[in-house]
TrEMBL record, chain A:
SMART domains with a match to the protein in the record: AAA
Keywords: ATP-binding, Nucleotide-binding, Transport
Pfam short name (any one): ABC_tran
Alphabetized PANTHER family for the sequence: ABC TRANSPORTER ATP-BINDING PROTEIN YTRE (PTHR24220:SF648), IMPORT ATP-BINDING PROTEIN (PTHR24220)
Transmembrane segments: none
Organism: Mucilaginibacter psychrotolerans
Domain ABC transporter: 2-225
Name of the protein described by the UniProt record: ABC transporter ATP-binding protein
Automatic annotation (TrEMBL), chain B:
GO cellular component assignments: plasma membrane
Protein localization: Cell membrane
Keyword annotations from UniProtKB, A to Z: Cell membrane, Membrane, Transmembrane, Transmembrane helix
Top-level taxonomy: Bacteria, Pseudomonadati, Bacteroidota, Sphingobacteriia, Sphingobacteriales
Membrane topology: Multi-pass membrane protein
Pfam family, one: MacB_PCD
The protein, known as: ABC transporter permease
InterPro entries: ABC3_permease_C (IPR003838), MacB_PCD (IPR025857), Macrolide_Exporter_MacB (IPR050250)
PROSITE patterns according to UniProt: PROKAR_LIPOPROTEIN
The keyword Coiled coil appears for this protein: no
Major place of residence: membrane
């Protein structure tokens, strides 16, 4: 599904040039659950942003589903993104002014799903995430665990092929964290490819494969059994 | 999709109540002020447009130049109206109006004084749109001694409008038959009368004199485009009509007349231009000034700009709070145009609420505004006809304008930057925002300077040495009622304790009173090049002392010198015009009309020069005045000096009652003077009110910005406090940025305001200079206002417990 080759990304300030990704190459197959680990500043988030088409690489190739997208402009990337990728953030990033239902509905609006279909699909996914009873609440009325469920519901409502999770349990206690990991595992078992950035060895164990980064390069790959 | 925007917008507004309140209130205040100005300007521009034929109606004017003297009249010769219809086939009709000034009308046993009376030709109702309620418009003014009343006048006298056929007694002994009742003349008309008397009643209206101007004359063209053609033919027409009279009465042909540097010409003013653009001799009412329409329109635009800038600034300052939302929406696949649409709909929504509030508020304060502006603006269905589309337009245009910057600014955020928290610095780095604050305060400083200058100029007009003493002068306006006994009345009043002196004449130096001009020649050659066409007034020997005029040369008239009937006193302006170094003993030949021959003149000797005094608008230069001894019983003026004015007044009134059954009509000269500057005072007051509003709105914006700046820097403030900064240092740090911006705005706006206000002052011949302290005061007050506004927020931030702000993150 994903093949990146010699991917490079630099950050420049006036005097210093920082290399975030240094000729990084990797491949992720459809249906895989991959964890990316590494110390702060190793380029994990940069990699995730590029994989999620939120950012573009300075050099190298990024083939998504057989299409080279490294040179895509923002609009093309956004279009590809909204149909194929769901995001889960550490800080949930729900919109405070919208209810649970409306937050989850949002991606469907942007992909032009009809109103009746939207209700059906949002209810379906809320049911699956067991937060149906909270549908009319606002994010701030929910616990962290519940908020992350809503965020995951929002990530999957469009039935994306790929979910990118950026430390999804980082703001949760261990019990809520385990619930979230179980949810992701379920999704993966149903066929969704998942790439997750994490600091937690415990969470990483849910994945099939761990890619460890250091200074913008792959240093090790562990295949989980 | 759209519902989603509205929903988010609505909830976002509710969540930030303070911000929303400032934003809506500021915008509503701005729009409300704007609406009032729009009402005012619309009213000024609507003058005479109630006439369905307004496009085809033109007033005929006369321009006269005699030697070095120029006079522009709004009135023309008595036979012109009749002749012009006969002469030009494309002139459909013409009508004359002649102001009858004051008359008294019997109501029961009482004699009411009526000031809004005019003689009018029967064609009045064909030319102007004055709908008749009762009576026949075609014939109402045909017969002599007919009167047409307005609706409210009919009600005032008869308690009903169905009064055709009733008789009214005017000026004691003239019986007039009511032949029609019309709707009241609209307030936005350049003339406003309650009584229209048939012109045929007025014998002089049949005069065939082509050499004098005293009838307001309007022509109705068949086609408005013929106006140019008519204007081009008027001079030839006048020459043809007046040529013979000129030869026989002045004794020269028009060609000779023109050769001597003089002319006599006719021109046209479109009916709809009269109110704002015409300032001629003999206007039927006090006209407006187009300049004020421009000034107020500019203020309205300024206020709207300030309010819009507030909106933009507050919205973008808040951007960090909205940034995350933008980021999330973008990650979820929202294209930029959706976000732009979202923010625009949000700002249009705010504008909508603000407009509704503004409309309600503007309509609510309209009566008060009317009182201040001396207007009579009413909201009618006709107003709604334009007001509703304009309101919708305002909502869309202002909403988009005010929302455009936040919309494009916020929607351009890169989602990863936002989600990573790179864009938390909401206030800093707002180059455009700083520019907008400068712009806003620049306008405020400009308006403060403008206000001060206008106020000073008006104050100057109020306190200027007029060359006479207008205080403590009682004017009995209808002294002419007493006919032959006015002089006796005056002499008897002089005996009353508390009356210092008294003078009998209708010629007084306040502009509501009589004016008359006459030609004087410098020598016996009667050369027009050496003529003067001054105000020529008839006064008595008590005039100069009673009014407190000063002599600069020679002496006042004396009652005891018989020879003074051949004497004149001139003012300094006349002396200068005539080129006299030493005026005393000079001779002048006053034309008595008719052929320019020595036998048709009277010789006068100049016995004195009086100091110039103001008798018309301070917009104009003091004209030459020549006074001579004659009995004119137009009015009696008394200089009083008493502690008990009511007692003196009742004495004067009972004295009057022994002479006449008519009510005594009196006024105080200082009040008459104030009345003649009322429109200026009103404009000044309105200007000050709107300027204050503009400044309040600008402050509201600054207040909001300061609040956000403080909020953005909460953490910084916390850290600084932990490190030992005290409150004053933090207040100074937060205020400094704003003060800097305000200082820049002062530097930019002051010279501009200086220039513009000097331009405005040019319109006054007698005016103040723009003083440096005005600029200093304006700048200082802008800084004080800004600091006061910002300090409140800064202090709040500085006094907060740093532990709270640091724990926050």
């Amino acid at each position: 599904m994903i093949k990146i080759t010699n991917l490079e990304k630099f950050y420049r300030t006036e005097e210093v040039e920082t290399i975030a990704l240094n000729k990084l190459s990797m491949e992720v197959n459809t249906g895989e659950f991959v964890a990316i680990m590494g110390p702060s500043g190793c380029g994990k988030s940069t990699l995730l942003n590029i994989l999620g088409m939120l950012d573009d690489p300075d050099a190298g190739s990024y083939v998504f589903n057989g299409v080279e997208i490294a040179h895509f402009n923002e609009r093309k990337r956004a279009d590809l993104r909204k149909h194929n990728i769901g995001f889960v953030f550490q800080s949930f990033n729900l919109i405070d002014e919208l209810t649970v239902f409306e937050n989850v509905e949002l991606p469907l609006i942007y992909t032009g799903v009809s109103s009746a279909d939207r209700v059906k699909r949002v209810e379906e996914v809320l049911d699956k995430m067991q937060i149906m009873h909270r549908r009319n609440h606002y994010p701030q009325q929910l616990s962290g665990g519940q908020q992350q469920r809503v965020a995951i519901a929002r990530a999957v409502v469009n039935k994306p092929k790929l979910i990118l999770a950026d430390e999804p349990t980082g703001n949760l206690d261990s019990s809520n964290g385990n619930d979230v990991m179980e949810l992701l595992t379920d999704l993966n078992e149903q066929g969704t490819t998942i790439i997750m950035v994490t600091h937690s060895e415990h969470d990483a164990r849910y994945s099939h494969r761990i890619i460890r980064l250091l200074d913008g390069q792959t240093v090790m790959e562990n295949i989980m059994v | 999709m759209f519902r989603n925007y509205i929903k988010t917008a609505f909830r976002s507004l509710l969540k930030n109540k303070g911000f929303t309140a400032i934003n809506i209130l500021g915008l509503a205040l701005g729009l409300g002020a704007c609406l009032l100005i729009v009402f005012y300007v619309a009213d000024e521009l609507s003058y005479d447009r109630y006439n369905t034929k307004s496009e085809r109606i033109f007033r005929v004017n006369a321009d006269l130049k005699l030697g070095e003297n120029r006079k522009d009249y709004a009135v023309v010769m008595p036979p012109l109206a009749k002749t012009i219809v006969a002469e030009f086939p494309y002139v459909e009709d013409a009508v004359r109006l002649k102001n009858a000034y004051t008359m008294h009308v019997k109501k029961g046993d009482l004699n009411m004084i009526e000031n809004k009376v005019a003689f009018a030709d029967p064609s009045l109702f064909n030319v102007f749109t004055l709908p008749m309620i009762n009576g026949d418009a075609k014939t109402a003014l045909a017969e002599p001694n007919s009167v047409v009343l307005t609706e409210s006048t009919a009600k005032r006298y008869f308690d009903k409008t169905d009064v055709v056929g009733k008789t009214m007694v005017i000026n004691d002994n003239q019986n007039f038959k009511v032949t029609g009742v019309i709707k009241d003349v609209p307030q936005n008309s350049h003339f406003n009368f309650d009584f229209f008397l048939s012109m045929s009643t007025w014998a002089d209206s049949r005069s065939n004199a082509w050499l004098r101007n005293d009838y307001s004359t309007y022509v109705l063209l068949k086609d408005a485009t013929d106006a140019k053609k008519l204007a081009g033919s008027l001079d030839g027409f006048l020459l043809k009509m007046s040529g013979d009279q000129m030869k026989s009465e002045i004794g020269m042909s028009y060609a000779d007349f023109e050769k001597s540097g003089s002319y006599f010409r006719l021109n046209l003013t479109s009916l709809t231009d009269i109110h704002l653009k015409s300032k001629r001799i003999g206007e039927l009412g006090v006209n407006g000034t187009v300049q004020y329409v421009y000034i107020f329109s500019a203020i309205a635009i300024f206020i709207l700009l300030i309010a819009c800038i507030n909106f933009m600034n507050l919205s973008t300052a808040r951007s960090s709070n909205r940034a995350r939302e933008v980021g999330v929406r973008k990650v979820l696949g929202s294209p930029r145009k959706y976000l732009i649409a979202q923010f625009l709909s949000e700002s249009i929504m705010i504008t909508f609420f603000a407009t509704v509030i503004a409309l309600v508020a503007a309509i609510a304060v309209l009566p008060l505004f009317n009182q201040l502006a001396g207007k009579d603006i009413a909201i009618t269905t006709a107003t709604l006809f334009w007001l509703i589309p304009v309101s919708v337009l305002i909502v869309l245009v202002v909403g988009s304008l005010a929302g455009s910057y936040p919309a494009f600014f916020l929607s351009a955020f890169q989602p990863i930057d936002v989600l990573k928290g790179k864009l938390s610095a909401g206030f800093k780095g707002g180059g455009l925002r700083s520019f907008l604050v400068v712009f806003q305060f620049g306008i405020s400083v400009f308006l403060i300077i403008g206000t001060l200058v206008i106020k000073n100029q008006l104050n100057y007009i109020q306190t200027i040495n007029l060359g006479f003493d207008r205080n403590q002068v009682l004017v009995i306006q209808n002294a002419y009622e007493l006919n032959q006994s006015t002089k006796t009345f005056k002499e008897e009043l002089k005996q009353l304790p508390g009356v210092t002196s008294a003078t009998m004449t209708g010629f007084l130096p306040v502009s509501v009173n009589r004016r008359s001009t006459s030609i004087y020649f410098k020598d016996a050659t009667l050369d027009q090049k050496k003529s003067i066409f001054p105000q020529s007034w008839e006064v008595d020997a008590d005039w100069i002392p009673t009014l407190g005029m000063k002599m600069v040369e020679g002496r006042n008239f004396s009652k005891d010198r018989l020879s003074d009937s051949g004497a004149v006193i001139i003012n300094e302006a006349a002396a200068e015009f005539l080129g006299y170094k030493n005026a005393f003993g000079q001779t002048l030949y006053n034309s008595l009309g008719g052929k320019v021959e020595l036998t048709n003149t009277k010789k006068y000797e100049v016995i004195g020069v009086m100091k110039d005094f103001h008798f018309s608008s301070l917009h104009e230069k003091i004209e030459p005045v020549i006074i001579r001894l004659a009995e004119n019983n137009g009015a009696v003026s008394l200089r009083v000096n008493t502690k008990d004015l009511p007692a003196l007044m009742s004495q004067i009134k009972s004295k009057w009652a022994t002479f006449s059954p008519v009510q005594m009509n009196f006024s105080f000269m200082d009040q008459d003077f104030d009345a003649s500057y009322r429109s200026e005072q009103q404009v000044g007051t309105i200007f000050i009110i709107f300027t204050t509003l503009a400044i309040i709105i600008a402050c509201l914006g600054l207040f909001g910005l300061a609040a956000y700046a403080a909020e953005q820097r909460t953490k910084e403030i916390g850290i600084r406090k932990v490190l030992g900064a005290d409150v004053s240092a933090i207040v100074a740090m937060l205020s400094k940025d704003f003060v800097k911006l305000v200082a820049i705005s002062i530097v930019v706006a002051s010279p501009l305001a200086w220039y513009c206000m000097n331009l405005w002052l040019q319109d006054f011949v007698y005016r103040i200079e723009v003083q440096w302290w005005v600029v200093a005061v304006a700048g200082l007050s802008a800084i004080v206002i800004a600091v006061a506004t910002v300090s409140f927020q800064s202090l709040k931030a500085a006094l907060a417990n740093p532990v709270d702000s640091l724990k926050n993150e």
